[in-house]
Amino acid sequence: MSLFGAERIGCPEVLASLVFIIEDAIDQVERPDDIRNHITDCPHCSRQLEHERMTHAFLVDALRRSCTEKAPASLYESIHNQLVGAAANTEVVTTFSMTEISIEIDEFGNVEHREIQIEQTHIQHINVDGDLPGNDGQRGGRL
User: Fold this and answer.
1) What is the pTM of this model?
2) Which of 1, 24, 32, 86 could be bridged to 141 by S-S, CB 3.0 to 4.6 A?
3) What are the distances in angstroms from CA 80 to CA 64, 72, 141?
4) Would you kindly state where each structural domain of the chain is located, as residue ranges?
């Protein structure tokens, strides 16, 4: 809990939103300001964001050098219409799973083995705006 009673956003939610930050679409996720603040305060998420940005830049650069053909405008429009049509049902589901194993040996040599499975599922609904690539709503900016 924060000082004002609101629940603090955790690393799993922030990490699930990295692609939106990289694509400059952070305002399309829930609690964008909390995500920005978390990244500012959390060294792990900040490093992960920088890693993802570098990977994204590397891939974009490689694609630009190898793909010289331009897609027809009708393809952009078709993809855009499909995305906008699916906007009402668009969600990102992220599942995290962790297994914790502990082994204890007492003074008599008896071995006790415990295994705990922890799972968390995060569902994030996405709002799609009406921007097409090459329009004023360019993507790929910074946080």
Assistant:
1) 0.45
2) 24
3) 21, 13, 20
4) 11-71+86-125
